[in-house]
Amino acid sequence: MHTSALAGEEILYRPAPEWVEKASLPSNPSARSGNLQVFDQQLRLEEGTLWRYLDTAVRVGTPQELTELGTLTATWLPDKGDLIVHEVTILRGGETIDVLAQGRRLDVLRRETSLEQRVLDGEFTATMPVPGLQVGDVLRVRYTTSLSDQALGREVQSLNHLFREPDFRAGFARIQASWPATAKVGFAATRGVELPKLEESGGYRWLELRLPLMKAEEMPRDAPPRYHLPAILQIGTFEDWGEVSRVMEPYYRVDGTIAPGSELAARASAVRGAHSGALAQAVAALELVQEEIGYLANGLDGGNYLPQSPTDTWQLRYGDCKAKTLLLLSLLDQLGIEAEPVLVSSVGGDRLPELLPMAAAFDHVLVRARIDGADYWLDGTSAGANVRVAGNVPPFGYALPLRASGAELEQIRQVLPRVPDLQVEIDFDQTAGIDIPVLYKARLELVGPAAAMFNAGFANISDEQMIEAGSDIVHPILGMSQVLSVDPIEGSDDSELTVVVEGLMTSLTKWEGGRGEQTFDLPGSKIAFAPDRARRQWRDIPVQLGHPTAGVVTFRHHLPGDGFVLTGATEIDQTLAGMHLVRSARLEQDTLTINERIIHLGGELPVERIAAEKQRAASLSRNQLVLTAPAGARRRWHYAGATDRSALTRVERAYQEQIDREPDEVEHYLNRARFRRGTYDLAGALADYTAAVEMQSSADLLQARSMVFAELRQRDKSRDDLQKAWELDPNPGRAIALAYAMADTGDIEGARALIEQQDGDQQVRHSLELVLAEFDSWEGRAAAGLERIDKILAERADDPQILNAKCWHMAAWQVALEEAESVCTRAVEAAPFPAPVLDSRALAFLRAGDYGRALADANAALAAEPGQHHSLLLRGLIRRASGDKEGEKDIREAIARIPAEIPVYARYGFDLD
């Protein structure tokens, strides 16, 4: 066996160690093995050194693989061991070409692959372009690396990934490990991997595992991380976690690390003088380490486990987690604060109890300070040190304290009350109307690392980027919205930040007929605890509840008047599936205030509690808060014909701010145009659509503007826009709109010709026939129009839409009125949504002089759909016909909302001017 364990930067070229058993090439590798014919790893643990032998034989199958495999590489840590190359050969048919015998050697590169992550790993890379390699060749490379870690002394450790089907294929693959029979060596594999028995031969114990392993059993996504561990073979000489603790402890001793009279000593003294109380001083020391020492992981000269001295760290102004931890420990020692270093795993910390004791199980170190009887976990590589959140525990699961006497793994628990990292207050201005776009002002208070991250991000960004950042912040809370302004306000330092975001969003009220309800996207309303443990093999798996977090939200909704009704769970104080929810909601006149505080306790839920917690979660999710609007709540059509639009001033200003910020953005004009049209500012809507058309003339924009022209009773301009839209994008729907405009401006023959030229599926053809039926009636041939509708009904006898069209045609054009009631009643009974059909039947009753039933149907239609303004107009006509003076009021209000219908109803014989 090669016995040199001295580190070296030169590559050695020697035969393989005597303990290596060279694998034979498969005589007839199957297609299933792919191009990898041999993948052989052999490990030897002896005399404080880990030897790793690797043998690969790969067939070059394609030109692309020739490029990929044409340069071989090998890596090693020169401060901890050697790279010893044994073989580089090309197998071509029955010929073996020895590349090393030709005098070829690998070149040494110093390549830092992780500099972007501020990591110097100290790893060297050796490379060689393989001369003469061809498609069809087999390239075989064998080499050994040695590793003796300065920090671990005589201890050795090894973590090895075990490949699984179907992702790994090879003709021959194994991992073999050996160590002296007299050595105390532990070995284990992660769950789901069964290891063979040890063999003993020649004074060594041998462990061999053939690869690949079978495909892993699927695990539920919410299983704790330890259930998702990849297959790993662990081998090490540490006796227990206590020994790991003892071995690593000396490197974090603080005696003499800060010299009296040094700058560091002065800084510690300044912290003591500026802050009273141990916690404030500890946090100030942490802030010093976080903010004045940059991060750089230096793995050179044994630095993988050995921290640089506090003096070096202070002079260099950079260091990794080890260096920052030792510096912080030294400062806390100067301040007389009890503290110790602790090792943690930043990924899947709950896995540690299932791993073999070794230093390699950890990838991070931080400080645990004991202050006033409580533990504080201080991370020098984090940011945003702040007294308010210093008691919040990190999401690492377990920690190993480093002590001269040794220590065992300890679970990191949230003992102190969890302080919210984020508090949100949002005021929603709905005073203009319950279906008017909502103005909001969100105030978000961040403390700790999140505040530091956002403060750094906000420091050098443009106004446009600031708006985007604000959108990203509020989107998880509000969903889609239009952010108008973002105002970041830094607190006493970068660990505190208040962000004020103002914006505009669509109405929060959802309507079903005449009933308007608002639900609330609160953290407590997102509770969904439904873990799947139906599979037999999953029934003993607990549920991962995530990391500890806390948050507070307060929503204030300023409503358009009183009369609203709040139902649901207004008061909640319960713990559910590791989450403590406290809610308080109150409705006082025209203001609704909701406050929720949620603390996620983290950890996991035992199997025996899953069923009960699922039931509780389901019960809570069914008891949501609901705000119901009163029947007379102010809505957008209350502004139709109104001279006082002052309630809309702030919303108008919001749209103007967007336009001023991005005057070339078409969508901003369209947003305001839709708002103005929806609130009956038709002149304003026309101006915005015109501005949009001038910037981007599309068929959709022209058709949208044509509708505003029609509502303004500028029929020629409406027709001209529709003509242009049709020319840009002809389709049956646009043809129908254009045909009506043509007929409305006197060209009914051209309109009829346009419709007769169109075609489509059955539904399109029926729509075209209904238009022609209307034109028949315009020309005094209502009976002919009715015949067209009857032909459609012959194909679709019970279609409620066609029945309603017939009912309306009969009533509007007063044709076959004696049959209208039965047809209309059939339509009402068949319709899934009765409001439009009730409106049609009301007109039929009006024509028949049955004012009582006509009024009843009109009222029923309005109750089901208050926004059906034709029904309001019809109710006014019914009232006027019956001598009710309130009819004129209904007519005036309806005409203000649907002015374009005046000529339509004139054709039906109703005088509305």
How many domain modules? 5
Which structural class do you get from the secondary structure elements? alpha+beta
Mean pLDDT: 93
CATH class of the largest domain: Mainly Beta
Indicate the low-confidence ranges by residue numbers: 1-7, 112-119
Overall helicity: 25-40%
CA-CA gap between termini: 109 Å
Corresponding CATH architecture of the largest domain: Sandwich
Count the DSSP helices.
25
Main sheet specs: 9 strands, mixed
Global morphology = elongated
Kindly report the CATH topology of the largest domain: Immunoglobulin-like
Radius of gyration: 39 Å
Count all strands and give the number. 38
- Beta-strand content: 15-25%
Keywords: Repeat, TPR repeat
Protein name: DUF3857 domain-containing protein
Domain DUF3857: 52-206
